[in-house]
Specification:
single chain; alpha+beta; five-stranded mixed β-sheet; three-stranded antiparallel β-sheet; 19 helices; 14 strands; 11% strand; globular
Length: 481
């Protein structure tokens, strides 16, 4: 006998909507976990189930989805994706800052054709950027004196900007021109306006709201990027003014502060896993370099990247709005189906879904570098780039970038086995220091991290990163500039 669906667990909060917004912006993990713990306390017999939880975000009813199965179905099942809208969910947050047409905000059926066109544009780029990336990464490492103490995330953010600008607008770091700093500054203004908790545009002679500054930055950037496109300073050829505007709109996304910070987040987690994490008292960089076969080394690097994506997705989740009632079932007999009413938002929480024990078993919260090496098994991938028809267009490109960073650091460019003369890199923590508990939880080095530790040690919006600098010693064999 079928069970009657019920609304997500939870009730409208008694605290103000503004307080809810501050709580969510401060730490989504803490915000969500607090509601999960309340559910578990009220329903101890369902403590290990991952049913949708009700919350209020931006004064809207939101169903927080942290089950891997539910997230995958909502992203990949055609009957589900037909009931969800990206454009409606992000109308206030993103549309004013990333104007249409763009893939991020398009819904079916328009999205499919537009994405196919962009996949065609991106394919040649994916096949030829590796040499460009190798040079950019080497140049960045050469600029850091060997033996220096650096803030790893800030260094990776600098590298990420260099990579994105060199790929998409043929930016030569040796010439200021329009100005790398100016471009970054405009993108930062845009991002602050987008994520401002004061969502009103005010422009007076004495004060301008973050939203007003962000909207002006968007206009300036659009004009700048359109001039790059029409001047042949980007990798995408255009045939008419409409195509030029479409490319400029997408370059606004590809070169955004959000994209740079997301790449920096991924590279920070990846390099900490590569050089600082120990398996059997041995760093993964040492294990990989000891492998004789280049294909084995490549496969191990890809496995490590996939595991980093699973546990440490740069973007913690995405929003969708239901355009009709949705029912999410459960494989557990004691759990009734959940009804997501038409007009509700769904927060697909990638951090929780990527650590779902029903999908990743007892090691769901643990970093297992060779998880994706099995010849006969194909573990589910993480959700760092989404999934299904609206998976991130830049997924393959960013994986090429991540792979190239690792290869350059290990000195194994052109499939050559590293040797004592290779241009290699080593990264280590300062003596007598350890990573904060919340950062170790983010990386999957330590399980069962308390929500308050995560909130104290990690920022999660707009992308995940440690709240305090992670100071590391970087040593390398690259020549000084």
């Amino acid at each position: 006998m079928s069970q009657t669906p019920v609304l997500p667990y939870g009730s409208p909060t008694t605290i103000s909507g503004l307080s809810e917004n501050f709580s969510f912006h401060s730490s989504p993990e803490n915000f969500i976990t607090a509601r999960v713990l309340a559910f578990q306390k009220a329903h101890p017999h369902l403590a290990d189930s991952r049913i949708p939880i009700r919350a209020k975000v931006l004064n809207r009813n939101v169903a927080v989805i942290s089950s891997y199965d539910h997230v995958r179905r909502l992203l990949c099942d055609e009957t589900m994706t037909a009931c969800l809208s990206s454009s409606q969910a992000y109308d206030e947050l993103m549309a004013p800052f990333f104007p249409p047409p763009n893939l991020l905000l398009l819904d079916p059926p328009d999205h499919q054709d537009h994405k196919q066109m962009w996949l065609g544009r991106m394919a040649p780029l994916n096949g030829k950027i590796r040499p460009l990336m190798q040079g950019t990464i080497r140049k960045h490492l050469c600029s850091i004196p060997s033996g220096s103490v650096i803030d790893l995330y800030e260094s990776m953010k600098t590298l990420s900007w260099q990579i994105l600008l060199s790929i998409f607008i043929h930016k030569d770091e040796g010439r200021e021109g329009v100005g790398k700093a100016e471009t970054e500054g405009l993108h930062e203004d845009l991002l602050r306006g987008q994520f401002s908790l004061f969502p009103v545009s005010i422009n007076t002679p004495f004060w301008r709201s973050p939203r007003s500054k962000g909207l002006q930055a968007r206009k300036t950037l659009q004009s700048l990027l359109l001039s790059k496109v029409t001047g042949g300073k980007c990798p995408f050829a255009i045939n008419n003014a409409q195509e030029g505007q479409d490319v400029a709109n997408h370059l606004l996304l590809f070169t955004s502060s959000l994209a740079a910070k997301a790449l920096a987040s991924l590279l920070t987690a990846l390099l900490l896993n590569l050089f600082v994490f120990k398996e059997d008292e041995t760093a993964l960089s040492t294990k990989i370099c000891a492998l004789e076969d280049c294909k084995q080394r490549s496969r191990y690097i890809q496995s490590m990247i996939c595991e980093t994506e699973r546990l440490s997705p740069p973007v913690v989740g995405i929003m969708r709005r239901s355009t009709q009632d949705i029912v999410l079932g459960s494989s557990r007999e004691m759990v009734r189906p959940t009804l997501i009413p038409k007009g509700w938002d769904l927060w697909l929480y990638f951090v929780g879904a990527g650590r779902d024990p029903s999908e990743f078993a007892q090691t769901a919260e643990n970093f297992v570098s060779d998880r994706y090496l099995g010849a006969d098994t194909s573990p589910s991938e993480g959700l760092a780039f989404g999934s299904g028809p609206k998976a991130c267009l830049g997924r393959d490109l960013m994986r090429i970038v991540a792979t190239t960073v690792v290869e350059v650091c290990l000195g194994q460019v052109q499939d050559a086995k590293p040797n004592e003369n290779s241009e290699t890199t080593t990264i280590s923590l300062q003596e007598n220091t350890d990573l904060p508990a919340g950062v170790q939880g983010w990386l999957g080095w330590k399980a069962k991290i308390k929500p308050e530790d995560w909130a104290r040690d990690m920022k999660q919006l707009p992308t995940q990163r440690p709240r305090k600098p992670i100071l590391v010693i970087i040593e390398h064999r690259f020549p000084s500039p």
